[in-house]
Each structure stands twice: as C-alpha cells, then as structure tokens.
Amino acid sequence: MNQPRRDAAAQLQDLIGFVQAAPSPFHAAEEVARRLVAAGARRVDGTRPLPAEPGGYVLVRDGAVAAWVLPDAAGAGRPPALRIIGAHTDSPGFTLKPDPQDESAGYARARVEVYGGALLNSWLDREVEFAGRVADRRGGVHLVRTGPVARIPQLAIHLHREIGQEGLRLDRQRHTPPLLGIGGDLRGHLAAAAGIDRGDLAGWELITADTQPPRTFGLAGEFLASGRLDNLLSVHAALIALEDLLAAGGQPADRAGEAFIPLFIANDHEEVGSATATGAAGPMLAELADRILAAAGVAGPDRHLALARSTCISADGAHGVHPNYPEEHEPGHRPMLNAGPVLKVNANRRYATDAVGQALWARLVDAAREATGAEIAEQAFVSANHKPCGSTIGPLTATRLGIRVVDVGAPMLSMHSARELTGARDPWLLTAVLAAWWAGR
C-alpha cells in the first residue's frame, strides 16, 4: 500500500480550502467533480449509457456526486465486488423560503426555514451568506453564493435580564429571520449573483453558510474549527483517497489478486432523512451500482454474486467525548480527538456495523498504521442507554443494496453547530484508513 501523498498538516490546509469552496451541497458536488477530473477521471452524463472502458469516472446529480474506477477486465476472475465509501454533502442551517424577504421595524429580513437539526443558538451574531443554486425561467441552473449579506442578531442582555436564569430560548419562527439591511432587494441580489435579470429568477435552493474562514487553534494548533465538518470532512477524506488511487494507476485488486470496483457516493439530504431522489433512501446508489456493474460486463445472476461480496464504509461525523459533559457519554466508549477515526455501533441498528464489519475495520486500521507509521487507536462510539442514537446513510444503504455496511467517522465536538470542531490530525487519519480499503486490504 502506498503511503498518502499528503501529511496531516498539508491535508488539513487542503480540507480548509475544500470547505471554503463548498458552501452548499451543489458547490460540494461540483468541487469533487472538478478535482477528480483534474486527477484524471472523466465526467459523465447520468442520462446517457455509462462508459465501459477502464478508468475513473465522476457523475454529479443535483447536490450529490458519485465516482468510481472500472478495472481492466483482462484476467478477471469472479465478478468484481463494489468497495463503496458513502458520505453526504449537506449540513444543517437555514434555507431561503420562496418569498424571500419581509420587513420588521424598518429593517429588511430574510424569510428562512430551519434545515435539519441545527443548533440554532450557534447561528446568532454571525455574518452569513446564502449559497446553492437558482433556476431561471428558461430552465437554466446557476450556482450562486451571495457573500456576507445576513446576520441573526441576539437580543442584548439589558433587554433580556431573565436569560441568566431561564437560558436562551429561541422561537424558530420569530427569532431566527436574519437581518439583511435597511431596505434593499434580496431577490435582485440573487439574480445579480447568478448573472441573470431579476425577472428571470424563477426558483432557488439556498442555504446559509458562515463566512468566517476555518482556522486551527489550541496551544499546539491541535484543533480545527469550521462550518460543515459534518459531513464535508468525510467527503474530503474520500476524495483524497480517490485522488491518490487515480494517481497510483487506478487498478486496485484485493489480497487474492481479484479486481474490485472502488465507488464513492456523497448523497444529499442526509440531515433531513435522506428520502429524496439524491438521498440515501432514494434509488441513486442502487441504480448506479447496477449500471456500473453492467458497464464492467456483470449482468444477470453475476450481479447478485458481485453484490454479495460488496461492502460499504459509511463515513460520517462521530461524537468525541465532551470535556464539559462527560456524563452524557457511555462510560466505556469515549472517543478522543486526534486519536483516530471512530467505529460507530448501535444494537438497534441506527448504525449498520456488525461483528464482521468490526473485524474489517480493525484490519484497515492495522494497514493504515503500517502505511503511515502513525499511532491510530481503535476507537468506538456507542450511545449511552439514556440517550437516543442518531443515524447515518449506513442502515439505508444496507437496506437498499443488501450489502454489509460499516459506520465510521472522524470524532468531533459541537456537531450540528454553525462552527464545528475536530482534531487537526483527524482528517488525515480517517483518509489513511479509507485509503487502505481502496488499496485492497
């Protein structure tokens, strides 16, 4: 297995650039595609037959993206299995409503709707932009980002003396509309950002993004603070692993010498349940798996044989132990930042990991240690019995495809905040283990 081309510090800076280039799922999908094309992959149109020639390919569908590498069919043994890494491109925040603007007390405000399980208080007193896509009346679609145009101002303590005793209580409808200006025209601003006339603007899917850049901090610079780490950190880790695979020639084989097909998918809408055409509960991955296997010459009963040997690693954010709330964690399972990626287990199958998946992950951690020389702990997260467990695309993928899925992720704090926190080494450590998966271990 080749060692990763980047060290931890270099990958961290690359992640910072990636997050800044991806303020929305649509931007994230396009940035993944742009980078993979630069690495040698070919962008394909999902409405046309998929190519059958060996090599790397990438496909964008709305705010989701998929990429794969077809092996050389020469000397192939059994039908090639799929080695899938799954992630998601969306993050919690506020989306812009169809009638985007109102007025209150002489100020222009944006009309917004809460998207996903956002920590609302974390969005207060931040200069935010709207980012995503707009559609014009002719059917054209434009990626846009407004730059810092909005802020949700908090009420001063002098006007809310009770906050010390009652805590902050935000009404999602009354207290979260962002301030835009004294007058002004948000619709016109969106049209200008898209390069179209105001009257041509027909629709949009836009979400808030914090405009404060990511940054490292800590006494030794050991932490990274950034928006959208859940789940752009995992998207980026898989992207790096795939770029490295393409740079190495893109012809992976397992320990028995049999070819397999690396497949990366980053779905949209995970934060709201995934039940969309581009979400993990939709048909995108199953359809692509069929089409990719057909392009590789796998058809009929051989398709079932290929899927029976296929596995997915579902990479999403994992909860690191919180130093101020350790009692909220399961006592025997308290993942630390900068120690290594986390295996996620739940008896009620909110995570899909089983015993065989645990053993697979242990082998991959061993391979990553060997390749990097790094200390990588085998960490696991299990929810405490008094806490409900979140979920991922993992159980949905297992259900849709009938394949083994292993749920993992980099540990973080402040999950679902406008500004999340992870360790400075965690992106690199996650990539090292994911790279071992596609290196045939």
Automatic annotation (TrEMBL):
Enzyme class: hydrolase
Pfam families reported in the protein's UniProt record: Peptidase_M18 (PF02127)
GO biological process: proteolysis
Highest taxon of source: Bacteria
Record keyword Translocase present: no
Signal peptide: none
GO MF annotation: an example: metallopeptidase activity
Record flagged with keyword Hydrolase: yes
EC number: 3.4.11.-
Keywords: Aminopeptidase, Hydrolase, Metal-binding, Metalloprotease, Protease, Zinc
Protein name: M18 family aminopeptidase
Organism: Corynebacterium sphenisci DSM 44792
